[in-house]
Amino acid sequence: MQIKTNINERYTETELHVCKDKLDDEVKKIVSELHAMYDPALNGTDELGNRCVIPPGDVVTFYAEKQKVFALDAAKKYSIPQTLQELEKMLETSGFIRISKSEIVNLRRIRSIDMSVTGTIKVIMKNGYETYTSRRNVARLKEALQKGGDKR
Predict the structure, then answer these.
(1) Contact present, 84 and 104 (Cβ < 8 Å)
(2) Could you tell me if 65 and 47 are in contact, meaning their C-beta atoms sit under 8 angstroms apart?
(3) Residue 72 DSSP symbol
């Protein structure tokens, strides 16, 4: 593995590039560790009332229900103090995308999409959770998926 540092005035913020001829376990591990280090952590409350720190990369979806915002990971549901708008802005470069007025999903946690329903797309997450994208967000979701799920 090579590590290079390039200091140049044209860079206004730090960029990290992981380059290799194929996506293998080493690349996946490096990218995963970088996300763990640099993605912002969220505070939330689980269903038992315990305060928790939630790594955004573990979150499958953020959704609004009964004027509250929840995060769903592979196993648990958490209440989150931020609004969906705040989360969208905070996580815009972390592979999350708004699919409806009330939901933001983690593109890396999408297992498949079903386009058989006219005008909508059924989104099936890796943990089995199913949701739908609104018509106005179908094109944006397709574009994000074609780019590989990373909006950076």
Answers:
(1) yes
(2) no
(3) E
